[in-house]
Amino acid sequence: MKNTVVTIRQAKERGEKLTMLTAYDYSMAKLVDEAGINMILVGDSLGMVMLGYEDTLSVTMEDMIHHTRAVARGADHTLVVADMPFMSYQTSVYDAVCNAGRLMKEGRAQAVKLEGGSEFAEHIRAITNASIPVVAHLGLTPQSLNAFGGFKVQGKSEQAARKLLADAKAVEEAGAVAVVLECVPAKLAELITKQLQIPTIGIGAGAGCDGQVLVFQDMLAMFGDFKPKFVKQFAQVGDMMKEAFAKYIEEVKSGAFPAPEHTFKIEDDVIEKLY
Ligand code: KIV
């Protein structure tokens, strides 16, 4: 069954949990799709985990379109959501609609995600009016890293919690089809989830959300630079890869690889004529 913004909404109504993972290329998208994950996020986290930047700020529209296109080719059943990178929508409502349109038209995304609450309600409404589904992103919004003064849990004081709840209602009212809650206290995320009709997708926001999202390199232990508290490593794929690389080095050096079964043949009389 194809996941769409309609089936995602119906899942919340049925009380069925939703799953989302990041993917940034064709082969990973195929694996995620075949596993039955509901949504792929082509996150601007690709700047850190794929391109080696220290944050997401340098990611461009061209980066996002390039990776989204690759993912879309591998995702048959999974809903593909593409992140709007820093400064692709903050500058104006017009830019927001144009760039969201490029992610759909050129990247073949099925929804876009943008960071921010009530201050971007007008942007969300305009993108939605252009028939582009929008996923909002609240709490720790990494594009605001410099304004926050670092990666910190959001919404802990009464005032901050009230603002987060109001933002969640504002983005829903503006037409968002779902909202990512990042690094938000679990009880606050649960309260927001109960007060919204649209699904909440948590990352570091506890089990009370309607769904969960993780960066695939984090959950497969492939990214050693930093492990946030909210990450669970479901497999040690990074170690498995390093072991395989070491074995490859050993076998190439010893001559064990390639073996006869990895080798193409030629008739002896043909080769003899070449000597
Ligand atoms: O870019 C990303 O991967 C994200 C998730 C962390 C939600 O925004």
Short synopsis of the structure:
With about 280 residues, the chain is an alpha/beta fold. The protein has helices at about 5-15, 25-35, 45-50, 60-75, 95-105, 120-130, 145-150, 160-175, 185-195, 215-220, 235-255, 270, and strands at about 20, 40, 80-85, 110-115, 135-140, 180, 200-205, 210-215.
Your description of this structure?
- By secondary structure, the protein is an alpha/beta fold.
- The chain contains twelve helices and eight strands.
- Strand 6 (about 180), helix 9 and strand 7 form a beta-alpha-beta unit.
- The model has no long low-confidence stretch (mean pLDDT about 95).
- The structure holds 3-methyl-2-oxobutanoic acid.
- 3-methyl-2-oxobutanoic acid binds near residues 45, 137, 180 and 215.
* Mean pLDDT, all residues: 97
Reported for the largest beta sheet, the result is: 8 strands, parallel, barrel
Unreliable residue runs: none
Amino- and carboxy-terminal Cα gap: 60 Å
Bound molecules: 3-methyl-2-oxobutanoic acid
Approximate shape: elongated
Oligomer description: single chain
Supply the helix-strand structural class: alpha/beta
Strand content: 5-15%
Order of helices and strands: HEHEHHEHEHEHHEHEEHHH
- Count of helix runs: 12
Q: Could you estimate the helical fraction of the residues in percent?
A: 40-55%
Strand order in space, largest sheet:
1-2-3-4-5-6-7-8
Question: What is the number of E strands?
Answer: 8
Radius of gyration: 22 Å
